[in-house]
From TrEMBL:
Belongs to the glycosyltransferase 2 family. Plant cellulose synthase-like E subfamily. It is a multi-pass membrane protein. One of its GO terms (cellular component) is Golgi membrane. Mn(2+) binds at residues 278, 302. The keyword Repeat does not apply. Keywords: Cell wall biogenesis/degradation, Glycosyltransferase, Golgi apparatus, Membrane, Transferase, Transmembrane, Transmembrane helix. Thought to be a Golgi-localized beta-glycan synthase that polymerize the backbones of noncellulosic polysaccharides (hemicelluloses) of plant cell wall. This is Glycosyltransferase 2-like domain-containing protein. GO terms for biological process: cell wall organization; cellulose biosynthetic process. The active site is at 140, 442. The lineage of its organism: Eukaryota, Viridiplantae, Streptophyta, Embryophyta, Tracheophyta. It comes from Gossypium barbadense (Sea Island cotton). Its main location: Golgi.
Length: 730
């Protein structure tokens, strides 16, 4: 197509407020310079302990400055993409590519089959030609309960898909739709479909609760015979069943329209073989799908991330199929958003600023990270292809790639592709597919793709593309962040560190933009130092900050106030609330002092080979009482954990420090408040930390339900805090 006739399928626009952000960043940098000057010029000449404490605080502040610089670089020039799906339809008509959709689940207890079914049904109902859709479920739990749920989904889809098309249903997850939609005026069909869904859901949940498939159901499908040979979920043969063969003319819905292909896969598991967690499951799906449907575009979603926007495929194709810029794009990442957030986001799970500004900043610098879900991939790039400058895609040629064999023959021939030994002495997990060896395999996979010359883009439409389930207890959140932070730090300390691995392969700004995420865990040391040491030295009577009457107090106050005020403004601009921002700051502190702390030391132990790589699933269900407290926005502390020991001890330490400071100020009232002048910033820091920890005190002393802090944690925190204060005072 000639350039003068070229009409883009998407548009790139600058995020608003960039100039204001830069105007704020410049004086903050100046204030940081003055803080560094103060630490150098007023280095104490007294005792050895005071000097080392001063050095420790100086190093902590230098770390905060470095981290702020890295974050600022990543957000210096943020952009967003605006796709035009109407142009896509006009230009390509029916010549749209096949799409293979991967849904991954691993445990029917932590990820209930009823939830998995809703995700599968939601992606089957995309606003896209059904004959071009192929959905693959990877069941790493090897559960016949999940297989049964998929059979139910295959049957219900015959009614659900035409219903979605007729009423233009959004979202296309039945559970989410019927939970939020109001009954229409002409409700007969609506009630009929809802009744069918409720019946399906009841049967799936009944078998899940029973924890076995009744004999009369097992006789209804040949696939159940596969479980006759299984003794353990980590020791079984490959189970591959094509539940709906989209090529079959009889595979139609109740209105005679074709259905998407639906495939169930439980890859082979043997105790003597490492299965490589989700990365191994994805690679097995890539190989199996290449024989059955071989769609040039792959979408992967977690089993709890249902489709919330039926046009997501077309939005992504606007980028992939753009004649001028699309051929260099390897993957398109959607943000990870959640449908169960409370009004004020009690656990800070929305990542508002990260998703709207920081990932958009990575996009401007060369492309966002691949975050493991809600991502559309070019199959060739995911399978290790090197990008070439003059690379052009022949979409028409790629459209005719489906297998010609029968479904039963494909089931047998494809099993070897999901066997344990298939990857032995092959590039899979190294140069092909998702990479192995690090907890956050998605991040290094995306980085390695970009280092092969490809680019990626970030798509954040007004209506969210995907919605998942956020943690509903504090411990779930901390465990999840421990895994993320540990994986990111492993990357930074490995050969996949963006600064090293990306050298001369990707732009410097993109290499730097990866670092704030890779260094999450490293924040723990400086944060813990700032939380603990100023409080203890306040009791000791040693000032670590300039006097209130000194002009040197200005840079400290300016940097702290302006930085936090701008943070609040950003959060509100990203459609958050003031209380939501307060919760976000609290969770930020909790993560840095607990989950990041454990992630940091677990990573060090693994580097020293004192620990092995593990993968922790986050539960997607909670009991009724926990859910009720979550909806009331009460933080859940009702579990015994070393993380809660640390949180409670730090909270009590700053409470005792505040009491000591108040006592000092009262006793000094007759001396023109010299104590307040000398220790004003330290006292303020203690009081701020006490305010942040108010929910912890409530859980320690006032909460009476099962969400309160365990008594053992309360006693330990008081004893540890008193011991620390006593040692500091003598």
């Amino acid at each position: 197509m000639a350039n003068n006739n070229y009409v883009p399928l998407f548009e790139t626009k600058q995020v608003k407020g960039r100039l204001f952000f830069r105007c704020i960043a410049a004086p903050i940098f100046l204030g940081i310079c003055f803080i560094v000057m103060y630490r150098v010029m007023f280095f104490p000449v007294g005792g050895k302990a005071e000097r080392w404490t001063w050095i420790g605080l100086f190093l902590s502040e230098l770390w905060f400055c470095l981290y702020w610089f890295l974050t600022t670089v990543s957000r210096w020039n943020s952009v967003y993409r605006l796709p035009y799906s109407d142009r896509l339809s006009q230009r390509f008509g029916k010549e749209l590519p096949g799409i293979d959709i991967f849904v991954c689940t691993a445990d029917p207890l932590m990820e209930p089959p009823s939830m998995v079914v809703n995700t599968v049904l939601s992606v089957m109902a995309y606003d896209y030609p059904p004959e071009k859709l192929s959905i693959y479920l990877s069941d790493d739990g090897g559960s016949d309960l999940t297989f049964y749920a998929m059979l139910e989904a295959a049957n219900f889809s015959k009614t659900w898909l035409p219903f979605c098309k007729k009423l233009k249903v959004e979202p296309t997850s039945p559970e989410a739709y019927f939970r939020t939609a109001s009954e229409p005026v002409n409700a007969e069909e609506w009630l009929s479909v809802k009744k069918l869904y409720d019946g399906m859901k009841m049967r799936i949940e009944a078998t899940t609760k029973l924890d076995r498939i009744p004999d009369y159901i097992r006789k209804q499908h040949k696939g159940f015979h596969e479980w006759d040979f299984i003794t353990h979920k980590h020791d079984h043969q490959t189970i591959l069943q094509i539940l709906i063969d989209g090529r079959d003319t009889n595979a139609v819905d109740i209105e005679g329209n074709p259905l998407p292909t639906l495939v169930y896969l439980a890859r082979e598991k043997r105790p003597q073989y490492h299965h490589h967690f989700k990365a191994g499951a994805m690679n097995a799906l890539i190989r199996v799908s290449s024989r059955i449907s071989n769609g040039p575009i792959i979408l992967n979603v977690d089993c709890d991330m249902y489709s919330n926007n039926s046009k997501s495929i077309k939005y992504s194709l606007c980028i992939f199929m753009d004649e001028e810029k699309g051929d260099e794009i390897a993957y398109i990442q959607f943000p990870q958003k959640f449908n169960n957030l409370t009004k004020n986001d009690i656990y800070g799970s929305s990542f508002r600023v990260i998703q709207q500004l920081e990932l958009a900043g990575l996009d401007a610098n060369g492309g966002p990270m691949y975050i493991g879900t809600g991502c559309f991939h070019r199959r060739e790039a995911l399978c290790g292809k090197q990008y070439e400058k003059n690379y052009k895609v022949d979409w028409k040629k790629l459209n005719d790639t489906k297998a010609n064999e029968s479904a039963s023959l494909l089931e047998e021939t494809c099993k070897v592709l999901a066997s344990c030994s298939f990857e032995h002495n092959t590039p899979w997990g190294k140069e092909m597919g998702l990479k192995y060896g690090i907890l956050v395999e998605d991040i290094i996979t995306g980085l390695s793709i970009k280092c092969r010359g490809w680019k990626s883009m970030y798509l954040n439409p007004e209506r969210e593309g995907f919605l998942g389930v956020a943690p509903t207890t504090l411990l779930q959140l901390l465990v999840q962040h421990t895994r993320w932070a540990e994986g990111h730090l492993q990357i930074f300390l490995s050969r996949y560190c963006s600064l090293v691995y990306g050298y001369k392969r990707i732009p410097l700004k993109l290499r730097l933009a990866y670092c704030p995420f890779n260094l999450w865990a490293a924040n723990c040391l400086a944060t813990l130092y700032y939380v603990v040491v100023p409080c203890l030295f306040l009791l000791k009577g040693f000032s670590l900050f300039p006097k209130i009457s000194s002009p040197w107090v200005v840079p400290f106050v300016y940097v702290a106030l302006v930085h936090r005020a701008y943070s609040l403004g950003e959060f509100l601009w990203c459609r958050g609330t003031f209380r939501g921002w307060c919760n976000d700051q609290r969770v930020w502190l909790f993560n840095r002092t607990t989950s990041y702390f454990f992630a940091f030391f677990q990573t060090i132990l693994k580097l020293l080979r004192y620990s092995q790589l593990t993968f922790a699933l986050t539960a997607k269900v909670s009991d009724e009482n926990i859910s009720k407290r979550y909806e009331q926005e009460l933080i859940e502390f009702g579990a015994t954990s070393p993380m809660f020991d640390i949180l409670a001890t730090l909270a009590m330490l700053n409470l005792f420090g505040s009491f000591g400071a108040i006592k000092m100020v009262i006793l000094d009232a007759d001396e023109d408040f010299k104590v307040l002048d000398q220790f004003g910033l330290q006292i303020l820091l203690c009081l701020v930390l006490v305010t942040v920890n108010l929910p912890v005190y409530q859980a320690l002393f006032f909460q009476k339900d099962n969400g309160k802090m365990p008594s053992s944690v309360t006693y330990k925190s008081i004893i540890f805090a008193l011991l620390a204060c006593t040692v500091a005072m003598y």
